[in-house]
Amino acid sequence: MRTDKRVGRQLIAGLIASAICAGTATASALLDHPEQRLREAVDAMHAGRIDQALRDLDQLVHDEPNFRLAQLLYSQMLATRAGAVNSSFSSGDAPVDALIEEARLRLNTSEPPPGSVPASILSLSPRHQHALLADLPRARLYLLENRDGSPQVLADFYVAMGKDGYGKQVMGDNRTPVGVYRIINWLAGSGLPELYGAGAFPTNYPNVWDRSLGKTGYGIWLHGVPDDTYTRAPRSSEGCVTVANADLLALRSYIQPGETPIILSDGTSWLPAAEAAARRATFLARIESWRAAWSAKDTEAYLGFYSKTFTVDNMDLKAFSQYKRRVNGAKRYIDVTLQNLDVYLYPGEDNLVLAEFDQDYKSDSFATLSHKQQYWRLESDGQWRIVREESD
Known about the structure:
Keywords: Cell shape, Cell wall biogenesis/degradation, Peptidoglycan synthesis, Signal, Transferase. This protein has three domains: about 1-105, no CATH class; about 115-270, L,D-transpeptidase catalytic domain-like (Beta Barrel), CATH 2.40.440; about 275-390, Roll (Nuclear Transport Factor 2, Chain: A). The chain has helices at about 1-15, 35-45, 50-65, 70-80, 95-105, 210, 245-250, 275-295, 300-305, 315-330, and strands at about 115-120, 120-125, 130-135, 140-145, 150-160, 160, 180, 185-190, 200, 220-225, 235, 240, 260-265, 270, 305-310, 315, 335-345, 350-365, 365-380, 385-390. Strand 4 and strand 5 form a beta hairpin. It has a seven-stranded mixed sheet, with helices on one face. The protein has a five-stranded mixed sheet with strand order 5-4-3-13-7, covered by helices on one side. The protein has a four-stranded mixed sheet with strand order 8-9-10-12, covered by helices on one side. The radius of gyration is 25 Å and the shape is elongated. Helix 3 runs antiparallel to helix 4. The relative contact order is 0.11. By secondary structure, the chain is of the alpha+beta class.
């Protein structure tokens, strides 16, 4: 046992140093998921059960021969036990360094606090049974279930992103965008190049906010990996988010193309459910006040919900105000109702909220159904105001 512990300590020092020293289990899609099995082998190694760790890894690489990180850990354990450790193991070798980064991301992941919800999703409408949330810096993709408007974690998966990280600005920058998007389609792998593996879920990047900021590019997908690969290195795509083929296929039954939102985040924080509910109620009340002012034909109160920086359809706030005063003043009545309201704290931005909903507008002379996106900014006076909106 003393020798096993010494070998385990040498392995950690020579292989991944502190990257895996804090490795802890987190929720996985399946108890027998390869990542969970890798963690269990690492736990056995830390406990000095080297024989058990070797058996676990031997079985894992047999079952998943393309799991390169498991292969690397297994081979290094065998080399360490045989007294043949390469002291330069983790330096100057880009593929190996990428695997070490993958180990750090996989094994240092911890579960969200019990009862917590992601701060970035304030409210989900009943039309979304599920949502996806990618924490790009931590290489995790969370599958969320909508429980009365509150998102709860069902499972999480390791994912990879763009070669140059996140924060996409222009076409070809090899970065993954940050924002709130929608899964628009499913493309089976049989009709795609080998790069995409089992298939792909295209997203609607660039969205309204991206276009308002002049961001360019296209073809941002959540997709699988080639058949000879288990998962890709943490930073390896041209901007897409990639996931193991088995995980992609497991996600497919939860994703409704055209409906399911996917949040690509520059970092995820978690809130106690009660605090999240209070934030949700506060912002829903703000949107309701906007709707009520419009329905009451209180045009000045209605316009007070719009920022001085507001733009829409090539109109600034002054032109928009003139237009609304003219239109509203000609109506005998206005009735606006909202349905399917989603509210997101927009990632990558300071104090920006996206409210997305179906709007039913009726007046004595006009009626229309539309889908609206509103972007609200917290301003210096402590009030949330609309900086941009678009209807389709």
